[in-house]
Input
Amino acid sequence: MLPGSIQITGEALSGAEIKDICDSLKENSVRLLSVRGCQLSDRDFGRVCRGVAESHSLAQLNLNLGVVSTIGRTKHLADALKANRSIQTLFLHGSPLLDAGLVTLNGALSTHPSLVSLDLGDCMLGDEAVRLICGMLPPDGAKSGLKELTLSANPAISSQGWARLAIAVAHSSQLRVLNLDYNPLGDHIAGMLAVSVASSRTLEVLDLEGTGLTNQSAQIFLDMVENYPTSLRVLVLAENDISPELQQQISDLLSEGEEEEDKDGEARGSSVNPREKPAWVPHSIQTFTKLSLTLPDSSSSQMVLMTSGLGESFLAETEM
Output
């Protein structure tokens, strides 16, 4: 039987439910575990972490919305990640980690052999956290690194922190998706990011929604995509003070670039793919089949979602 998924949102988890989750993890029958916004005791959180450590099938772990609420829980999670070798995607969006929490997690995150997608949005991070995150964006292929990074809504990061990140992005050999939405970036930092995008050989998606940009930033991005080759395919500029005309011009140019690459590939023959697609696929564009099942041996009526496996690619979360 292919590994499935357990997804529970905003529930107070009983001891019996925690036991069922842990048993499933240890039996390697779970590929996606999501307990976003759930309430559980520190003891039960530790039990789940021990199950994560022992699992060889778990590819995606969602602890969004405050599940990792203390430094003690952060330490439990770090220990689990050090032992686990299978997780490819980790969601911690809305966790009050602060820089101290990321310092605790850094050793496990930066050395994890499979982790390619990390969501640290709204985690109250600052410049020290950004410095550590840059270490997860290696400049060459000799070391594995992140392919998707979310740092949405971390307003404590300074201009210096964003500048450091921009340099790391410019030289990263693997990063393909970068979500920085709802940070107070402004035109100056956006200019730095434009230089990063122009330099990057891999970045395909950049989300700058609601980041305080104006037509000044948009014009820089327009000049970049109009005059220089870029890997960028999607640039999100919604919820900024940018004219719809400029946004449309940028979108049209990015679309034209992709169409031209496809035509070049067809001209060279159907056996040649103009842009090699990696086995990894951004979590936001994957699809999967869902079946509603009840946790075994549980007296609770709480329903979870079991999801069929997707071969070598990891499963996608249905909701943030």
Summary: The chain is about 40% helix and 10% strand.
